[in-house]
Amino acid sequence: MTPFDPLFLQALDDLARQDRRRRLHPLSPYLRADFRTPHGKTLLDFSSNDYLGLSRHPLLAERAADAAAREGTGSGSSRLVTGTRDLHERVEARIAALKGKEAALLFASGWQANASVIPALARLSKEQTGATMLVFADRLNHASLHHGCAAAGLSQIRFRHNDLSHLETLLQERAEMPGLKVIATESVFSMDGDRADIPALAALARRYGAFLYVDEAHATGVLGSGGAGLTAGVGDVALSMGTFSKALGGMGAWVAGSRALCDWLLNKASGFVFSTALPPSVLGAADAALDLLPDMDEARATLSRRADWLRAQLADQGYAPTDSSTQIIPVMAGEAGRALELTAFLEDEGILAIAIRPPTVPAGTSRLRISLNAAQSDADTERLAAALARFSTRR
Ligand SMILES: Cc1ncc(COP(=O)(O)O)c(C=O)c1O
What we know:
With 395 residues, this protein is an alpha/beta fold.
């Protein structure tokens, strides 16, 4: 016990009183109900973002191991020192091709990319226009995008979620203001599973001379032709960001855009400059995932069909409707305590569906965030639906 611990403990108690305290649970999630589990508590996983099941794919494991055996387990330094390898450049070239961009730049994680790319863009605005950058941000953007703005000392101009007429009003009001104007959005929203209208956003960006920044963390691999996401092939998306940590089953992230953009970021994005390069094993897995992606149409179709089925079941069971149209399906609970109760109920039924509470989502909108996985079976989703039905009739 240090003299500071009472401060921490008091603050943690405050969180617990609001049902907002988080804890780590030593669970062993498994993908399939027919998987023979070892000892201990194992739960059917409806919470991870491994949408295509690639994190367990033998090719990724093999290529990760090969790369580590060949090149070592660490990169040794930042890309700018001695860290750049052929594999970095190969994976970047493949991402650029997938997204239809001139270039791409890898980051250690999606969080790190968003948190450091926004400040690098803000710096560009200040240096080149003499004016503060304006960020027009969807209200439901991921915490890492908010963090990037906070790190750059910017206050965001927030538009109502997916409300492009609100966005246009805000752009119009500031049309004469100097400085780089950035529109920042996700293409699939992580907690709601709904989509942004990328072509309409691109048209607004063009009309108002804005830089469109799209986070494709939850779309890449799952949506778009060959899993390329929702920005691929849409002109006027200046920056398409994504991660290997979700449908691509690994770790790490990228920013894709023009060569000039990537060259600026490799000079000024602190999360790139001052952080050790992604290691060979991670790159080997990413490269293998990119090999598999184009041929996974069947898995993508399965996800979409199963998601439609589950949404219909939830509607029949009286759960509140949502705007989800993807593999992410929120089950709305309202207050945090209620969401925790639902998670505990499902846990007793052998199902892992974590409660998502403020500040991750706005107060009063706590929920279970169900994420489907193509490596599961229809019977697994049926089991989840049956458990949710039991909960709803219990009320
Ligand atoms: C929309 C979005 N962007 C960025 C991230 C961060 O990505 P990573 O987990 O690779 O740090 C996440 C992860 O939860 C996300 O949901």
